[in-house]
């Protein structure tokens, strides 16, 4: 038992050290991997508790009780009826789960539920930037549907069911291609095989201009200024977007991404042919979004899920609700 205490202390210290190094920026953390390992480790302790440690404590408690019964019988034969001492407290201490099982096996059910929910159903995210304004604001806490596009195995993100095909206009969370440990959120503009053009701040797909409607200017409370606002229709979905006329249409600083030979850059903007198995993503804040225009296409294996609901914004409770 003493060895298990030291082993457990070392495991817990390793988890704490990993989180601390991640928090301080010393390493690049992977929450999915951390949660998976926590589930496996606590699950192992939970099984050991059910199959070995708990039966062992119960046998020890039964032995104590049997010894007490035998002692009382011997005292009875000696004519001693009144016996001091109560074994109930000692029995309770023997059956009590030690701290190292409390912090492992005891946490397994909660960790397992969180792991299953996060891996296969819904995952929460926080919007860190203004690239999706006006649809999503900085500080929005959103839910992402993990099964719409097909279930994926945690950590390795391998697709195991087909699900519903990605649609133009979907708001998607994905692993950032240049740095897959980071999650990004943008809107799906181009599907595999599409030719997407964003020229002079007008979106065209397969030679057809995307229908737009002018809306009243949008006031950005963080920037304390107004922006030109439009409503776009991608497929069956409409959404709002904002444009800053003062920013040039030229895409400045595009990286040398895979598939760039299928893109043409000019002073008017960019035109790209989307490769098979990839998607072209853009932010709704068109002139303040680092998206596919700059770093390329999102491969299918990088998909995390479809964002669909703001469940909290502590600065504005009216933000709670679904969005397009």
What's this, in brief?
With 324 residues, the chain is of the alpha+beta class. It has six helices and 16 strands.
Protein described:
The protein is of the alpha+beta class. It is built from 6 helices and 16 strands. The strands form 3 sheets. Strands 1, 2, 3, 4, 13, 14, 15 and 16 form an 8-stranded antiparallel β-sheet that branches. Strands 7-6-5-12-11 form a 5-stranded antiparallel β-sheet, with no helix packed on it. A 3-stranded antiparallel β-sheet has the order 8-9-10, with no helix packed on it. The model has no long low-confidence stretch (mean pLDDT 93).
Descriptive tags:
single chain; 324 residues; alpha+beta; Umud Fragment, subunit A; eight-stranded antiparallel sheet; five-stranded antiparallel sheet; 6 helices; elongated; EC 3.4.21.89; Signal peptidase I; membrane; protease
The rough form would be described as elongated
Per CATH, the class of the largest domain reads: Mainly Beta
Main sheet specs:
8 strands, antiparallel
In the CATH hierarchy, the architecture of the largest domain is Ribbon
**Total discrete domains:** 2
Classification by helices and strands: alpha+beta
SSE pattern, N- to C-terminal:
HHHHHEEEEEEEEEEEEEHEEE
**CATH topology assignment of the largest domain:** Umud Fragment, subunit A
CA radius of gyration: 29 Å
The CATH superfamily name of the largest domain is Umud Fragment, subunit A
Mean pLDDT across every amino acid position: 93
Helix content: 25-40%
Q: Percent of residues in beta strands?
A: 25-35%
Detail the poorly predicted runs.
none
Distance between the termini: 56 Å
User: Total number of β-strand segments?
Assistant: 16
Number of helices: 6
């Amino acid at each position: 038992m003493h060895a298990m205490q030291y082993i457990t202390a070392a495991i817990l210290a390793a988890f704490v050290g990993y989180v601390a190094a991640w928090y301080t920026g010393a390493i690049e953390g992977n929450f999915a991997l951390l949660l998976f390992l926590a589930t496996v480790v606590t699950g192992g302790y939970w099984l050991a508790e059910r199959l070995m440690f708990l039966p062992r404590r119960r046998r020890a408690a039964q032995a104590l009780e049997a010894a007490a019964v035998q002692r009382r019988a011997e005292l009875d034969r000696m004519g001693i009826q009144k016996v001091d001492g109560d074994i109930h407290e000692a029995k309770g201490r023997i059956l009590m789960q030690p701290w190292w099982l409390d912090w492992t096996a005891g946490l397994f059910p909660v960790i397992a539920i969180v792991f299953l929910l996060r891996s296969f159903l819904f995952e929460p995210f926080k919007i860190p930037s203004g690239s999706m304004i006006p649809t999503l604001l900085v500080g929005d806490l959103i839910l992402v549907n993990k099964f719409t596009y097909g279930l994926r195995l945690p950590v390795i993100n391998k697709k195991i069911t087909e699900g519903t095909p990605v649609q133009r206009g979907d708001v998607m969370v994905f692993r950032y291609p240049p740095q897959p440990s980071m999650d990004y959120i943008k809107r799906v503009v181009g599907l595999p095989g599409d030719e997407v053009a964003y020229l002079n701040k007008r979106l065209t797909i397969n030679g057809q201009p995307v229908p737009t409607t002018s809306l009243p200017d949008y006031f950005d409370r963080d920037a304390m200024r107004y922006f030109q606002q439009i409503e776009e229709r991608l497929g069956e979905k409409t959404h709002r977007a904002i444009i800053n006329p003062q920013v040039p249409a030229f895409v400045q600083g595009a990286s040398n991404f895979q598939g760039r030979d299928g893109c043409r850059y000019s002073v008017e903007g960019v035109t790209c042919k989307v490769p098979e198995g990839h998607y072209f993503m853009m932010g709704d804040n068109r002139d303040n979004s680092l998206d596919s225009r700059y770093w390329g296409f999102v491969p299918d294996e990088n998909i995390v899920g479809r964002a669909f609901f703001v469940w909290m914004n502590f600065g504005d409770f009216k933000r709670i609700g679904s969005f397009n």
